[in-house]
Amino acid sequence: MQPNSSIIRLPWRLQRRLDAAAGAFLNPRQGPAIDFARPPGEQALVSPDSVSWRIFKNPIALYIGGLAGVILELAEPAVRTGVWEHSSFRTDPVGRLRRTGSAAMVTIYGARSIAVPMIAGVTRMHAKISGKTPAGAAYRASDAQLLAWVHTTAAFGIAEAYNRYVEPLSRVELDSLYREGAPVAQLYGALEPPCSDAERRALFDSMRGRLEPSPIVFQFLQIMRETPALPRPLRWLQRTLVAAAVEIIPDWIRELLGLTESYGLRQGERWMARLAGAASNRIVLRESPAAQACVRLGLPATHLYR
Fold it and tell me: What is the DSSP string of 132-147?
């Protein structure tokens, strides 16, 4: 199902600022800039007519869903230890988010000749990371089951954020999203990633007894509430979007982690998150990876907004 909402046309100054912010946020200063408009005509790993292309274009769903995915990752002790000890979340949270977001954009929208080497580089980096959890359990960042959890939590977070704050997704669309992402997850080294929402639910249920609470979850939420991460015109919304991320965590995991109602959205904030999500689905960001990828394939920059 294609979006049927009309495009919102902003004042040109605001549009220019948002375009620039979209380009800057997903092209970190560290590492080479990525041109999603090149090479002309080259396909991505995922089809432009996919559910993934439609959903991942929405910056609000990406932000909320990305945060929810990290919360779920931090609930698993081996993943939590690896993320907290071998990444820059504590020292450079915005930079880490940008690099993670950039990798996700390349995976969905980047030309194959760019996406495949990038994924190979990530897998080589994971192969170098290992250690022990505070409980003494050994882990490797290249563990295929852990990678399946990381991939699935990210996909779930973005899908659920879109479903709840942008527009409802049908069961068919949810299944398509997981099916589209499975081959890419396998490139990253994930073992048997879910190909449907039912398989995603089964994976989540299988994690009962493995997930556990940790003060690091609350440290992460505090960092994301207090560190300026969004473009300046949207920064006032940041705390609400962090709460919106907590809101979409499955109830039993929220209870396990101790994420009480005070960490979620207040009644007066829900409409704000939904308004932001719905509006962002109608604003064409011409410098965004999604729009530039459409241009690369000879499609209008507005292709995903029709």
Answer: E-TTS-EEETT-HHHH
Query: Distance between CA 152 and CA 190 in Å, rounded?
Result: 9
The rounded distance, in Å, linking the Cα atoms of 298 and 306 is: 16
Residue 109 to residue 294: CA distance in whole angstroms: 9
Token couple for 304: 């995903």
Nearest to 44 by CA among 289, 305, 304: 289
Query: What pTM, to 2 d.p., does this model score?
Result: 0.92
What is the per-residue pLDDT for 25? 60
Q: Contact at 8 Å (CB) between 144 and 137?
A: no
Burial of 209 (0-12, 13-18, 19+ CB in 10 A): exposed
Q: Could you give the CA distance from residue 194 to residue 135 in angstroms, rounded to a whole number?
A: 29
Q: Are 65 and 159 in contact (CB under 8 A)?
A: yes
